[in-house]
Design brief:
Layout: E1 3-16, H1 18-28, E2 32-34, E3 40-48, H2 53-59, E4 64-73, E5 81-90, E6 93-102, H3 103-110, H4 121-133, E7 136-150, E8 157-167, E9 180-181, E10 188-194, H5 200-208, H6 218-240
Antiparallel strand pairs: 1-6, 1-10, 2-7, 3-4, 3-7, 4-5, 5-6, 7-8, 8-9, 8-10
């Protein structure tokens, strides 16, 4: 049996340099509070088709896109709870469904196709997505996160992600935290998550600090840096040299 949750919100991303992060952290004091977990590590397995259709489609910035991942907080043991998450984005609004289950059950479900006892609306949607695309584990991504919530509006959340690491081998959450870094030295990925518009006071702080939204996908960045050459290497080289890929 699984515990299920559904979220709907707007998410904006900002790529910060070290100085911008320190300035912003100071500006947010008194307006936002760090959550109870402090700085913690989030680990994910992203599922995709054999030829990476989902992330390739996502990088084209369509009106609608979706992704499926398995998430844990820290390195899980077999009996620890992990989260099967189906994330969709449509016209800028993020819809996230997730179901909690033990690590051993999640592996049996997603890796081995054992669906006995898996019920509920979220599971139905995950099953549909698995069957529609023929998904399999493709990429591991982990990062260290600080999360904050608004003092006046607890639905306002800001997260800061550091040390974003990825790999496309050993694709099991129990295998540990390691991989190739995908951010530059000192860079921090910030996300602002709201039920509506960003508060005026926050927009002012960001504007005065010269911090602007960016299009950034952790999975997409790892794909571009580490996978695309391996999967489409010959085609990429021919195109770069003005080869035959011009019909």
């Amino acid at each position: 049996m699984s515990e299920q949750e559904i979220f709907q919100r707007y998410e904006k991303k900002y790529l910060l340099e070290e100085g911008q992060f320190q300035l912003l952290k100071k500006e947010l004091e008194g307006k936002m509070t760090m959550d109870q977990y402090g700085k913690h590590t989030i680990c994910n397995i992203y599922f995709d088709t054999p030829d990476y259709l989902l992330i390739r489609t996502s990088l084209e910035k369509p009106v609608y896109k979706e992704k499926l991942r398995l998430r844990s907080y820290g390195i899980p043991k077999e009996e620890d709870l992990v989260f099967v998450e189906l994330k969709k984005k449509y016209y800028g609004i993020v819809y996230k469904r997730r179901a909690a289950m033990k690590m051993s059950d999640a592996r049996a479900y997603l890796y081995e196709g054992k669906r006995e006892g898996k019920k509920g609306q979220v599971i139905k949607e995950v099953n549909y997505t698995l069957d529609k695309y023929g998904l399999e584990p493709k990429v591991y991504l982990s990062y260290d996160r600080i999360a904050m919530f608004g003092n006046m509006d607890p639905n306002l959340r800001v997260t800061f992600d550091f040390n974003i690491r990825g790999r496309n081998t050993a694709l099991d959450l129990t295998n540990g935290v390691y991989g190739e870094n995908i951010l530059g030295n000192g860079q921090v990925l910030m996300e602002v998550k709201t039920a509506g518009a960003i508060p005026v006071w926050m927009a002012r702080i960001l504007g005065e600090a010269g911090i602007f939204t960016t299009s950034f996908s952790k999975y997409g960045e790892f794909y571009k840096q580490e996978i695309i050459q391996d999967v489409f290497g010959d085609q990429v080289q021919k195109t770069a040299k003005g080869g035959s890929n011009c019909a």
